[in-house]
Design goal:
- This protein has one domain.
- 78% of the residues lie in helices and 0% in strands.
- The protein is built from 12 helices and no strands.
- The N and C termini lie far apart (44 Å).
- 44% of the residues are buried.
């Protein structure tokens, strides 16, 4: 990539994956597909912002709760000083990404359990939230909060970064191997994303994670890759292929699974 093309790719990727007002070109979707191997870098940036946000929330809330506990009323500071920053950090990440991946998770939940594939596709595109969509979204995001909650102070910053990198890597995997559900902008994205350069994404993911988690990053990459393959199978069963909703849902599920995975390893 030339210097100008690289700058354009990063700008379009930020516009594609976040709500950061960096400006975007008319063909930003195609540019994002061509540069999908850089998704882990954007994930690292999102994770860095999320990690810093968590540290700031943790510092402020701990001091506020300590003041309340000493001056006003006795409250469970140990629990709240971990739980509140976890919830606030997840909310920050969801807002930063424009809730577009969260919307895909809800749409997947909406479609699960509907007998006819045509109806499943229709409900996924409708502006509705069924109880199944709400339950799936709440469950997955609760797992993410739980993962952050149980992480120790030494690991949480790197874990938040790694979870975003791994989530984006899972998006690379499902986009690379998936077949589109229908002809349109989504199918153009998936066809453009099928490039052997995507192997670079796995090396980038490891390089970003290694300083924080060491060789555990290898297991996270394996887990993320397996998730991408599994979500492609789910997409084929539910929608007959991969859609934007499936790619978005993969991001949310990937984040939650990796946070739980790292928390579990840390506890053990």
């Amino acid at each position: 990539m030339s210097k100008m093309k690289t700058i354009k790719a990063f700008r379009d990727l930020l516009a594609f994956l976040t709500i950061i007002p960096v400006g975007k070109t008319d063909d930003f979707v195609i540019t994002s597909a061509e540069a999908i191997f850089l998704f882990p870098l954007i994930g690292g940036f999102i994770g860095l912002m999320g990690g810093l946000y968590f540290l700031g929330c943790n510092f402020l809330i701990s001091h506020i709760l300590e003041f309340i506990n000493k001056s006003i009323i006795s409250i469970p500071t140990d629990f709240l000083s971990k739980f509140l920053p976890a919830v606030m950090t997840l909310a920050f990440l969801l807002v930063l990404t424009g809730l577009q991946h969260f919307d895909g998770l809800v749409d997947l939940g909406n479609a699960i359990g509907i007998g006819n594939m045509k109806d499943r596709r229709a409900v996924a595109h409708a502006w509705v939230v069924t109880y199944k969509g709400a339950l799936l979204a709440i469950f997955i995001e609760f797992l993410a909060v739980l993962g952050i909650f149980f992480l120790d102070a030494q690991t949480v910053f790197g874990a938040i970064i790694a979870s975003e990198v791994a989530a984006k890597l899972a998006m690379v995997t499902i986009s690379w191997i998936g077949k589109p559900t229908h002809t349109g902008l989504g199918s153009v994205f998936l066809e453009t994303a099928k490039n052997n350069r995507n192997i670079i994404a796995y090396f980038l993911a490891f390089l970003i994670m290694f300083p924080f988690l060491g060789l555990m990053g290898s297991w996270i990459i394996i887990t993320s890759t397996i998730l991408g393959f599994l979500m492609e199978k789910v997409g084929k069963i539910v929608f007959g292929g991969v859609s934007g909703d499936m790619i978005g849902a993969t991001n949310e599920i990937g984040r939650a699974i990796i946070l739980i995975f790292i928390a579990g390893v840390s506890i053990l």
